[in-house]
């Protein structure tokens, strides 16, 4: 008999030999993948965390808008504008829209409001994804929480209550949001099937 052997081989690959050199195909398929564990109902800690984050967003926006209004037209800003005009390589006269202090002031004010709105929208999207159970948003929101706490600490140095009070309240609330978002029940919700 000159052809390939039929039937199982002794001491080798179980089954017919695959023609040609190289790795041989597996004779048995792997087990089917385990089904993804079902996510349980949303725990109260996640709901509390999201509610606190909504408060943090609102309080932070109030503080940043109040800060933008308090800086607008201030003597400190005028002094900074005059210093920038004296600095070599930073020619405000050639920058469109920044020739006068009033234009400079308005540009900074609008930029502050736009940046505040964009950051608030970004954090709101993270909070919504957190509500849906995306585990990675907890880490992203913890980074945001560190920034909010830092702004709350800096708020103790200001003499403007419209900036300080919302910043400090946001810092306190964000600590509660992080603690609630990292409770045992919340971790089980974010990672179903793992022991928290």
Automatic annotation (TrEMBL):
Organism, as annotated: Tsukamurella strandjordii
Lineage: Bacteria, Bacillati, Actinomycetota, Actinomycetes, Mycobacteriales
Transmembrane segments: 46-66, 108-132, 139-157, 163-181
Residue segments, region Disordered: 1-42
Keywords per UniProt: Membrane, Transmembrane, Transmembrane helix
Pro residues bias locations: 16-35
Protein's name according to its UniProt entry: Uncharacterized protein
Source taxon at top rank: Bacteria
């Amino acid at each position: 008999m000159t052809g390939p052997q039929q039937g199982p081989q002794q001491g080798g690959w179980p089954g017919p030999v695959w023609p040609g050199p190289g790795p041989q195909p597996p004779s048995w398929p792997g087990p089917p993948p385990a089904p993804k564990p079902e996510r349980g109902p949303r725990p109260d800690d996640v709901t509390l965390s999201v509610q606190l984050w909504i408060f943090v967003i609102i309080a932070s926006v109030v503080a940043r808008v109040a800060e933008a209004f308090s800086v607008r037209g201030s003597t400190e800003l005028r002094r900074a504008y005059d210093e920038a005009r004296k600095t070599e390589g930073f020619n405000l006269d050639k920058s469109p829209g920044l020739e006068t202090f009033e234009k400079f002031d308005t540009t900074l004010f609008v930029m502050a409001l736009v940046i505040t709105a964009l950051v608030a929208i970004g954090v709101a999207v993270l909070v919504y994804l957190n509500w849906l159970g995306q585990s990675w948003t907890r880490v992203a929101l913890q980074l945001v929480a560190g920034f909010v706490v830092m702004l709350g600490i800096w708020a103790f140095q200001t003499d403007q209550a419209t900036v300080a009070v919302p910043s400090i309240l946001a810092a306190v609330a964000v600590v509660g949001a992080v603690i609630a978002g990292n409770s045992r029940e919340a971790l089980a919700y974010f990672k179903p099937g793992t022991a928290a």
